[in-house]
Amino acid sequence: MNKKLALFIVITYAISWAAWLQILDKIESSPFESAPLVLLLFFIGAYSPTITAILLTAALEGKRGIKELFSRFRLKSVKKRWIIISLLVGPFIYSLAFVLYVLFDGSIGDVNYGLLPWLPIVFIVPIVFGPLAEEIGWRGYLLPILSPKSKPIQSSLLVGFIWALWHAPLFFAKSGTAISGFTITIPLVVLFFIAVIASSFIYTWAYNNTLGNLSIAIFIHLSMNSSGTIRGMLFPEMTLEESLQYYIYYTAVLCSVIIIGFIILRKKV
Predict the structure, then answer these.
(1) Model confidence over 162-183: pLDDT tens digits?
(2) Burial code of 100-118, b = ≥16 C-beta within 10 A, e = fewer?
(3) Torsions phi, psi of 184, nearest 5?
(4) 12-47 pLDDT, tens digit each
(5) What's the CA gap between 122 and 251, in Å, rounded?
(6) Which residues 6+ apart lie within 8 Å of 255 measured at CB?
(7) CB pairs under 8 A, 24+ apart, for 60-65?
(8) What is the dihedral of CA 102, 115, 236, 220, to 10 degrees?
(9) Positive or negative torsion for Cα 128, 132, 133, 139
(10) What is the Cα–Cα distance from 56 to 185, expressed in whole angstroms?
(11) Percent of the chain that is helix, strand, coil (3-state, to 5)
């Protein structure tokens, strides 16, 4: 196994899992309602991919590596359509899944219309979780190691699997992943892995079309996370069972988008 890849996985998992395993039963449904020490350990675990990427880059590549890594945040060379795509991909997939869920008699309960004026703020807040915490690691450090341009499928699958498995301890907390709070079963874990691996293809596609721009990766992650948060807040009366049914629709739509994207791209080649 590639040395850089192995070091990244071992260190990232070690830091995150060591932090999270101490507090799984203490994380509240809304993490910010957790005790200060619990919140600190939660964020140490969440930011491990980014912390590890920066430390390894500094140790293995020095100042030049760090400069190159952070230079990839620049948006000047990125066409505006990629900024729009990255911010809208989440709302598009979540909305389409929601339409299908409702069309097939899914229950949503009362709508929290009071949230609507706050949507821009609610959309931005999750940036402190996955987007900033993870993307320097997953798409800034890990993905480039795996030759995403020449091996996009293999790279997407491997990054997606490593990314999904990294979340494992949080499956058993009240929050932290899309399946936290549910009764954890093998089919549910498989569903989560499918969703994360499928979304990994979107990041690789964007990476290959924007010269690995990290701001775009962060925008995509923000777009996906925020859409999930807004769905939960906008329809607070949906039960766990109903939320799970919706998540199944979401995963199906996500996979369908990836498959359709492959078909379109192959026709263009």
Answers:
(1) 999 999 999 999 999 999 999 9
(2) ebeeeebebeeeeeeeeee
(3) -80, 120
(4) 999 999 999 999 999 998 888 899 999 999 999 999
(5) 23
(6) 194, 198
(7) 60/4
(8) 70
(9) positive
(10) 35
(11) 75, 0, 25
